## 1
Amino acid sequence: MTPAPPDPGRLVRETFVRHVEHHAVIGSTNDRAREMAAEAADRRPRLIVADRQTAGRGRGTKRWWTGPGSLAFSLLVDLESFGVERSRQSMVALAAGIAVVETLAPALEGIPLGLHWPNDVYAQGRKLAGILIESAARRLHVVGIGINTNNTLRDAPPELSDAAVTLLDLTAREHDHTEILVGFLTRFERLLSELAHAPKRVGRKANALCLQRGRFLTVAHGGRTASGVCEGIAPDGALLLKTDSGPKRFHSGTLREPPDRGQPLRG
Ligand code: BTN
């Protein structure tokens, strides 16, 4: 299905973005945003939205499936202009995840959804949205988000059928992309301001939405791995693990195994 294209006029009127670019097909909206970071005449927030990506990227070497009907977008933003200190920038992915959860929750009519550290939104044990934050030229940042909206897993590569979920498959109805973008951008702006002025509130919200508490996780970071029971997210945004050698905290890293497969529940 081809979704109605986003309404750039409404996005500029109702949110903080000052420029919207829509593509029917593009390689990756994150790549386009990084190009823009180097070329743009000013540092005003820009939004790039695509109906289809031919080279959508996830974290590390992962690819992102942009199934027909899904929503892929990247926000090019100057975090410093929001007052977000460099030391807090690792919490921007949490802020984006919270904004996605808060935006989609009303549409899910009671189906619980939450955060999978470091950067995913899950519902019913499957991935509904992924977030990829990258730094770009001139100290700008790209916040790239893929949401499985009006796509269906019937079109997905077989390896995703147990791992992903879409709004359409969960609710049996279509969802308006402009509405989702306005909802996300409004909430994200508020969360960036909280990150600047009251960062612990963002950490506490992320902790309340953490779906991995009590799960046994293996986190890889800086060439080392640590395994332990997840104790949630600290107010400063760190993932908390209770390991055999004591408590450990991670501000970044990668989960060693898919969090939704073969994870014994403990604690
Ligand atoms: C992940 O799951 O590891 C992150 C996925 C991020 C996907 C989005 S889709 C829009 C933007 N453009 C990309 O190429 N990737 C991000």
## 2
Amino acid sequence: MFKNTEDNHQLTNKLDPNNIPAHVAIIMDGNGRWAQKRHLPRIAGHKRGMETVKTITKVASDMGVKVLTLYAFSTENWKRPHDEVSYLMGLPVKFFNDFIPDLIKNNVQVRVMGLIDQLPAQTQKAVNDAIKDTEDCTGMVLNFALNYGSRLDITMAVQSIGRQVASGTLDPEKIDDQTISDHLMTGFLGQLADPDLLIRTSGEERISNFLLWQIAYSELVFTDVLWPDFDRVVFEEMMLEYQRRDRRFGGIKTSK
Ligand code: FPP
């Protein structure tokens, strides 16, 4: 668990450039508490959280992260008050409106996973335009989980596999890990589908229906810092913690 220790300015120099996690996934939590602490409406926290998304996208891309997956809206978030949901649905419109030129300049490709066709029309348009505008970018993939839930993801994958079995195009005996990975919403990422590092902000230590299959061997790192306060320094501290971990994937440490 990390605190934001403002005193650490030289972290980038301590990071091993050969051990940057290829896929980083983030559960961006604490926007509401950030706002409440300041006696502001919750949406002020989401607004500020959107600025953090811009900062961390640039930092991650500069560090050499290949995929940054951000949990922006879950299938359970529809339970929030109507005004808050409306505001959250407007954020991608604002975000892409402001930030597409920077994303293109930084060669960042936008992708979105989740039930996009259930989103309001203007949100769908913003998302689809962003995907199209950045489709030729070959650098980091900025992958938003929007109206995403991992149980939904797994359920849809099972349905799709079931249809192939029923139509006779897939032998059930041939179904393996890779078949399932390929059918999940992260399937388009190929070998990069599984996060190496999963971060959750705000002091909560749970997964909240995010990438349940894909995080089987991810390193999990938590911080007390609320998402609107998350910055380059905290991110680098978490990357350093990742680099201290000994990843064995169920095997034993091999001598170098
Ligand atoms: C969780 O904080 C945050 C969310 C449900 C929304 C996350 C969205 C953003 C950070 C902005 C996304 C930007 C784009 C471009 C889509 P919370 O509200 O649950 O915080 P709390 O636990 O303190 O109440």
